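Standup notes
- HV: blocked on the assembly model, inputs below
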Amino acid sequence: MPFRILVVDDEKGIADTLAAILTCSGYESLPAYNAQQALAVLPDFRPNLVITDVVMPGMSGIELVRELQTRSPQTTVMLLSGNAATEDLLTTAGTTLGQIVVLPKPFPPRLLLKNIAELARDFVDSPA
Amino acid sequence: MRDAGKNPDLSTTLVRITSSAAFLAPLVGIAFLAATLTARFFVVAPLVVAPVWPAAGVLMLALIRLTPTRTALFATLCAFLGSVVGNRLTGVAPLPSFVFSIVNCVSALVGAALLRNSLGQQAPVNSIRGLLLLTVYGVGVANALGATCGAALVKLFGLGQFGPSWAIWWLSNALGILTIVPMGLRWDTVRIRDRSRIRLILEAAILSAAVVVLIFFAYGTGSAAISLVRPFLVFPLLVWAGLRFTVPLSAASSLVLTLLVVLFGVKELGTIGDYSALYSRVVSMQTFMLMAVFSSLIPAAASADRRRAEREVQLGKEEFQFALQAASAGSWSWKVGSPTATLGLESQQLLGLPATTLLEAFFERILPEDRDHVRKDLETAAAGGNYSTQFRIQLPDGSTRWIEARGRLIVRDDEPWMYGINHDITDRKRAEEALIRSEKLASVGRLAATVAHEINNPLELVMNSVYLAMLDKNLSPQSREQLSTAEQELERVAQLTRQTLGFYRENATPGEIDATSLVGDVLKMYAPKLTQRNIKFSYEHNGSVHIRGIAGEIRQVVSNIVANAIDASPEGGRLRVRTSSVRLNGNDSVRLTFADTGEGIRPENIRRIFEPFFTTKQSVGTGLGLWVSHEIVHRHNGKLRVRSRRGQGTVFSILLPRWEREAVSATETR
């Protein structure tokens, strides 16, 4: 069963390119352009990992994380943020960092793939 | 307890009694009687008028001092009775006694009224103006009235001639008034400050003894040689009294002198039988005494005036000094063109310079970068204008203060002078600087937050696109190389934006870090550069010490500081690094110190090195390294400190909370 990754970013280009990179690297990947769309595909796609932008119109990345923590607790979340204050935002939102990894934007794809590879290995090691 | 309650009552009662009309008025009466009896004792027959009449002074003084008017009038009545009794007791017929007494009282009333009107009831006469008024109103107008009436009555009663009686009457009353009135008036407190009380009493005693001895010597012996010069012998003593003592004391000594002269003079006069010869001797004796009294009173009044003026000048100086102190300001003056300037006490303290100071020494105090504008401002002001400038000075102890100087050109004795003040405005300047700094930081923060999102998104997209393009298997080697270069450059840009607009986190979850090996790794990384610059470096530590934090961030801080130390070090310098465990304020901490032997940081820069965009490395610095380092250390609940001495080097120390690993490892080994 391949490792499934949902990429959420209101910048269509970023979501598409990132999904393409992940697909090329052998993961099953799907782009979504806002939080609502991401939540809509959640039941069918059942991602192992969600990589999401923080600042998005409508529902923000932080709100999406909160929603994911209740709807799909087993899903790992990576926040890809262009803003240094993201950690503070998370604390204000009452969401513990816990499993959430915050990556600064821009983040070199090579390093991103390295991080994901570690996650995917753990996923294989411990059959959920 | 009853006693304690009684005492104040007693004193209050006493004060009430002694200040009541029923007590004071009869007292005046008795004093008048006593003065009359004394004076009548000196009357030289066949003259009917006494050569000295202190009673006139007693009543005039009482009438000036006593309030309300009712008390004063009651006292006049008592004095009248005293006068009648005194005259009757000394053999004056009832009618003349009665009429003379009326004249005495009326003349005193007129004089007191005039003086109260011009000087006021509490007025000091220990001034030239006071003495003048006393002479004109008391001795002149009122006394002339009394003498005219008195002499007319003497003539009327057939007791003597008008002219001589008038002269003797007027002179005797004048002596009484001038000696008694100054003694009893309230004096404003012009203290003689340069002498102690004991020395003053001693001097007065010597003076009194000298007067008595002199009078006995001069008047007590009948030697003709002495009698020629004797009038002059007393003057030095009287001038001494006048110059060295207050007006009341001078008046008192004059009174003593007068009475003694009269006592001895009368003894001699008694032998002269001829009326006109007797008359002229008495008048000349009186005139001599009057002049003697004046020669004591005038210096006393003049020196009281001088002391008062001196005190005013002194008070003015003190007020000026206090005002300057309160404003933490100091005065200065400079004669334009002179190489020296004069500094007030506060200015001396502010600038750490002597009272008379070379202008160049003053400029030396000013920081070199401020020196030129101060010189220019002073020159402009000296050419005609106001001087108002601000500058920094460096004191011998190395501290820097902000001074505001103001002054203006004033022509004094046809010479141009500059007068002004120096004012310490360090606190104000520091507050202003702090405000500017915090505003700058806030605006940088806002800017960073706004720009970050706008820049980072496109960068992310470009980075992803380049990566994707490189995945194309059909890519020519040339294009692949170009894309690779683009990717490297992009990562450099990404690194820069991360440093500028946010902080890099390779791993957001804090972990346990061995500070000793982390610092060692960074030093290893810089080893080639250190060797290349010929910088000797040493690393002291006692094995692993652990902290908790984000390793990448701490590495960034250490790397920044080491890089700065290398930039600051001269060829062949030294860098000493130490990692140690310390206990500060009850907290276990890890301290990392980095000491270089570079040039050091200027004192005025040391507060600014943690500001964003502050750099002294014009071409290579971004001005962000230490700012970011400071923020990172702060976020790790640590402290980043710096100590620097010009020419000797700089020490940075990072203080971070120690991670208590012992408890964790204990459970693990079990």
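- HV (later): unblocked. The first helix of chain B runs from residue 2 to 18. Residues 1-6, 503-508, 663-670 of chain B have pLDDT under 50 and may be disordered.
- Next: hand off to the docking folks.
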